[in-house]
Design brief:
Number of strands: 0
Protein name: Tetratricopeptide repeat protein 38
Shape: globular
Keywords: Repeat, TPR repeat
InterPro entries: TPR-like_helical_dom_sf, TTC38
Structural class: mainly alpha
Helix content: 55-70%
Strand content: under 5%
Family: Belongs to the TTC38 family.
Radius of gyration: 21 Å
């Protein structure tokens, strides 16, 4: 039976088809724009390989777009009819759970696969991705440390494992280990976007802003083949400039880097969740600093109106709400909030609970804020603060929600709440709030 590059036996028609799978995996691991084309080419070599259809389903789910769920379920059904082996059948079970809203069950199945097959990098990376977007950073940490001793350092994909170790350790506060792993991954491959991203996070958390700008600037020439993750790295670069109050450079990076509407990457999915998160969170931060952002909110608000009722990405929902409220579309904002409540009531599973408990309070706070109801915003958001991490996103990304709470607390003259928020931030970030934009004046 053919095997993949990591030595896992798989249902491929030929060694050539296995190589096609390996090429797709390599592109996926490195966040390459051509990943869908690599998958299409692999399917042309072997249209009856269960794992290729599993990848197709997983990639559909990773878009966090309700409209893609039928395609994911169709790919899973196709794969089930192709006599998958036991490991491949577990992949399909995990994807089924994910498509049905059972992310916790999906995580458990991927963990089982990695326990039995520690070099199954597809299961590992789907877990890494999903655990991150559910705020399960300890699960990311545990799985990478469980799996990586089973990898030889010359095995294809080992650099990606280092990148994942870097990011998992960074989010769990082990900055020295994270930086060392991320820099080693970049030494092996300067185009490794996930490793570049992980080190950028370390530098941001530690307030090393000049280093952060230099780190991204020197690696940018290697990002040309990357997908939307390169936009997110440019967002990190803009965050370093924001901390230095270099607002013109932030706006330049917005227009030419992470919200470049002319980029072919953007044009493929102009409402991709992470791109819109990048944009909305930066505009929100800039406006809190008194910066005129012009008409940049408008196209985001248009995208937000088009996605009312799509609640798959819980963390994106407050960002859509930022755009709607910033442009004064309060009727649309109220409709969005109603749609979120309907979704949470009508569905079971992990995501509806997270939307109910955390996304709705954040979005309601934004709508109260837009109406000038600051005390109401504080009251609705306060109970959710302790579990807000379940929305997903990194500390750097979640920061915008903490700034939101601080903003409404200050406007409501709720000094006790403002002090509580600053204490939370001080306990989590190595860089004290006094040295950070958005907090120093709080």
């Amino acid at each position: 039976m053919p095997r993949d590059a990591q030595g896992n036996a798989a249902t491929f028609a030929s060694d050539e088809a296995a190589v096609g799978y390996d090429r797709t995996i390599a592109s996926f691991l490195n966040y390459r724009f051509d990943t869908p084309l690599q998958l299409k080419a692999a399917l042309a070599l072997d249209g009856e390989a269960p794992l290729l259809h599993a990848m197709k389903a997983g990639f559909s789910m990773m878009a966090y777009n309700q409209a893609f769920i039928p395609a994911a379920k169709s790919a899973i059904a196709t794969a089930r009819g192709l006599r998958p082996n036991a490991r491949e059948a577990l992949h399909l079970d995990a994807l089924d759970a994910w498509a049905d809203g059972g992310q916790e069950r999906a995580l458990a199945i991927w963990e089982r696969i990695v326990a039995e097959h520690p070099r199954d990098i597809l299961a590992f990376r789907f877990h890494h991705f999903s655990a991150f977007w559910m705020g399960r950073t300890p699960a990311m940490y545990r799985l990478v440390e469980q799996a990586i001793p089973h990898w030889a350092d010359d095995l294809p994909g080992y650099g990606s494992m280092l990148a994942c170790r870097a990011f998992a350790h960074e989010e769990c506060g082990s900055y020295a280990i994270a930086e060392r792993a991320g820099r080693e991954a970049i030494r092996r491959d300067p185009s490794d976007l996930w490793a570049a991203h992980a080190v950028a996070h370390v530098l941001e958390m530690q307030g090393r802003r000049a280093e952060g700008i230099g780190w991204i600037t020197q690696l940018t020439p290697h990002f040309g083949a990357g997908n939307n993750l390169r936009h997110h790295i440019f967002w990190h670069q803009a965050m370093f400039h924001l901390e230095r109050h270099e607002h013109e450079e932030v706006l330049r990076l917005y227009d030419q880097g992470f919200r470049d509407l002319q980029s072919p990457v953007t044009q493929v999915q102009p409402d991709l969740y992470i791109d819109c998160q990048n944009a909305a969170s930066m505009l929100f931060r800039l406006e809190r600093q008194g910066v005129d952002v012009g008409e940049r909110w408008v196209e985001l608000a248009d995208k937000a109106e088009g996605r009312i009722g799509d609640c798959l990405s819980a963390f994106t929902l407050p960002h859509w709400m930022m755009a709607l409220t910033a442009t004064g579309r309060l009727d649309a904002a109220a409709r969005m909030l109603d749609a979120m409540r309907d979704y949470a009531l009508a569905n079971t599973g992990d995501n509806p609970r997270i939307v109910r408990d955390y996304a709705i309070p954040a979005c309601a706070a934004l709508l109260h804020r837009a109406r000038g109801e600051y005390s109401a915003a504080v009251a609705v958001m306060r109970p959710a603060l302790g579990g807000m991490h379940e929305l997903g996103g990194s500390y750097a990304q979640q920061d915008v929600l903490e700034q939101l709470f601080l903003d409404v607390a200050l406007k409501a003259d709720a000094q006790t709440d403002a002090d509580m928020l600053l204490e939370r931030v001080r306990g989590r970030w190595p860089t004290p709030p006094e040295r950070r934009a958005g907090y120093a004046r709080g």
